[in-house]
Amino acid sequence: EAAAKEAAAKEAAAKEAGKTPIAAAGADGVDGVESSGPEESGSVSTAEAEEEADDEYRRRMTRVVESAEYHLPRRRNIFAILRERYDPTDSAHPSNEYYTPANLLRRESIRFDGNVQALLRAIWEATDNNKSGAVDRDEYKEMHGRILCALLGRPRGQSGLEGDQKMGRGPTCEERMEMAKQDWGADRRGFNTLNRSRLEDCWFTMSDRFTKSITAEEYTLFLNRLIGRITNFDEGTGQVGLRDEEAIYLDGDTDPLLDHNNEFNFFAPPTPTTRRAAEPSEGGGADPEAARGEARGEAR
To answer: Are strands 231-234 and 239-242 parallel, antiparallel or unpaired?
Structure first.
């Protein structure tokens, strides 16, 4: 600010100095111009220079502020951001209790629960099978296909292998491919891959969609049940990987995790292969069996 004022003052003083010869000529009677005394002329010149410097400073600062306001993103209310995240189609009724400011914050806070974080980390490890630090389209499609296997069962009209002749009721293979394409476009958010944050976002959003209460225990139960059905945990190597689709179908419990009303079936027995790392950590939350009983009561 001081530098701007000083520059403007010098510029004004230089302009005033350029008029001095004309004023001096006027003192000799040239063109009848009268000159003022040196002290009076100097005082007027300084005052005008300071005033012009102040005006120039205000103009410059105005341009800076206007430019900053134009380029900086507009500040958004945190509740508007959460409302857009949990209700992207803006279809929830204004009186829906799940979308009050308090409940939006409660839903978002569950994302940081210790058990939920452990389960999201587990599915990231299983999906990023080449350990590149990013999930590409092929890896995403493999994960997406296994989610549909667990939630919806076999494709509609398709029977299983020998020993499992139950006909599928889920979307057809063509419909599943289209669903994967649409979900990939939404989840990658314009990027070529999914990083860990975007993958965890899509899984947490899914758990929020299929749970009925705003409790970390029910979110944990949903994620534990689904991740346990589509992944294998190798105790020898400590690695987590995705299971084959046919193994998911023939897992002794071939009923999909979603019922005919597309509601999550909390009463379905857990998968025998539920990975140990997906269970709640010691001292990090509720026991899975206790959480399962509580969730069943709320579902009723």
So the answer is: antiparallel
pLDDT digits (tens, 9 = 90+) for 88-122: 888 888 888 999 999 999 999 999 999 999 999 99
- Among 16-30, 90-104, 196-210, name the one with the lowest average pLDDT: 16-30
Cα–Cα distance for residue pair 184/136, rounded to 1 Å: 10
How far is the C-alpha of 143 from the C-alpha of 176, rounded, in Å?
Answer: 12
Query: Two tokens at 269?
Result: 């027995």
For residues 275 and 281, the answer to whether their CB atoms sit within 8 Å is no
Are 86 and 104 in contact by the 8 Å Cβ rule? The answer is yes
Residues 140 and 145: their CA atoms lie apart, in Å, by: 9
Residue that the structure tokens 């476009």 belong to: 185
Closest CA to 124 of 201, 218, 236: 201
3-state secondary structure the chain: CHHHHHHHHHHHHHHHHCCHHHHHHHHCCHHHCCCCCHHHHHHHHHHHHHHHHHHHHHHHHHHHHHHHHHHCCCCCCHHHHHHHHHCCCCCCCCCCHHHCHHHHHHHHHHCCCHHHHHHHHHHHHHHCCCCCCCECHHHHHHHHHHHHHHHHCCECCCCCCCCCCCCCCECCHHHHHHHHHHHHHHHCCCCCCECHHHHHHHHHHHHHHHCCCCCHHHHHHHHHHHHHHHEEEECCCCEEEECCHHHHHCCCCCCCCECCCCCECCCCCCCCCCCHHHCCCCCCCCCHHHHHHHHHHHHC
Give the type of residue at 169: R
Render pLDDT for 249-294 as a digit per residue (tens, 0 to 9). 776 455 778 776 777 776 555 554 443 334 444 444 444 444 433 4
Compute the distance between CA of residue 258 and CA of residue 66 in angstroms, rounded to an integer: 54
Q: Is the dihedral of CA 199, 205, 210, 213 positive or negative?
A: positive
**Tokens 């994967």 belong to residue:** 180
